[in-house]
């Protein structure tokens, strides 16, 4: 799963990026509002962590423009304790939740899971189709009710496919969801990943649609 981290404070940004990657997220970090705007335009993010006080373009402006474009990516606002007006304003603009700095990293992860779940339209933590589901809390896959552990990349791959069972995702779409900027992605990385998943979950678990991409059964 990919997260866009928008934070101009070097210390906070660096430690958050590191912690997020340690927790299995692929994190792209930008330090100003305009870069955030263009990163969001590229799409592929599961969630956005948005600081409000930013150089070049305010966080609330980034949010307002994203929602105006119809971008529904879940946004979790990271804000200072004294910024009540900003918090209210950002919720009105379409933020999904906010967290007061300083916060515990565990709470950040829990809130990220919660906003992603709500976007997935599920009150519980399971998404997917009739034969295969993904547990967003434990990061396990359930195949006919049997649980299997997943690596971070396997989880990101299945999360992309199981958000909309039956829909075909192209190689580029999958790469966008799994790998962050500057990560070396070999031309057959997706094939290798899917080959491993099929060995683990069954040959029919992820189907190839020739020339178009991959999908899971609806
Ligand atoms: Ca700031």
TrEMBL record:
Gene Ontology BP, a term: regulation of DNA-templated transcription
GO cellular component terms listed in the entry, alphabetical order: cytosol; protein-DNA complex
Keyword vocabulary terms for this entry: DNA-binding, Phosphoprotein, Transcription, Transcription regulation, Two-component regulatory system
DNA-binding region: 122-218
Signal peptide: none
Domain OmpR/PhoB-type: 122-218
GO function term, MF aspect, one: transcription cis-regulatory region binding
Residues modified to 4-aspartylphosphate: 51
Response regulatory domain residues: 2-116
Cytoplasm is among the record's keywords: no
SUPFAM superfamilies with a match to the protein in the record: C-terminal effector domain of the bipartite response regulators (SSF46894), CheY-like (SSF52172)
The name this protein goes by in its record: Two-component system OmpR family response regulator/two-component system response regulator QseB
Organism: Variovorax paradoxus
């Amino acid at each position: 799963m990919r997260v866009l981290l928008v934070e101009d404070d070097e210390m906070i940004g660096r430690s958050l990026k590191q912690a997020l990657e340690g927790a299995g997220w692929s994190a792209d970090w930008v330090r100003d509002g305009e870069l955030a705007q263009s990163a969001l335009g590229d799409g592929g993010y599961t969630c956005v962590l948005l600081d409000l006080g930013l150089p070049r373009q305010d966080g609330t402006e980034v949010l307002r423009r994203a929602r105006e474009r119809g971008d529904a990516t879940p946004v979790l606002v990271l804000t200072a304790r004294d910024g009540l007006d900003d918090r209210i304003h950002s919720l009105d603009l379409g933020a999904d939740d906010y967290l007061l700095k300083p916060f515990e990293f565990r709470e950040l992860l829990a809130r990220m899971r919660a906003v992603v779940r709500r976007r997935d339209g599920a009150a519980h933590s399971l998404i997917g189709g009739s034969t295969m589901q993904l547990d967003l809390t434990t990061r396990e896959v359930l195949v006919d009710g049997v649980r299997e552990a997943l690596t971070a990349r396997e989880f990101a791959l299945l999360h992309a496919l199981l958000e909309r069972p039956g829909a075909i995702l192209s190689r580029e779409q999958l790469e966008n969801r799994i790998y962050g900027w500057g990560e070396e992605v070999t031309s057959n990385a997706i094939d290798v990943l899917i080959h491993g998943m099929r060995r683990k979950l069954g040959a029919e678990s992820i189907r190839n649609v020739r020339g178009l991409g991959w999908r899971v059964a609806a």
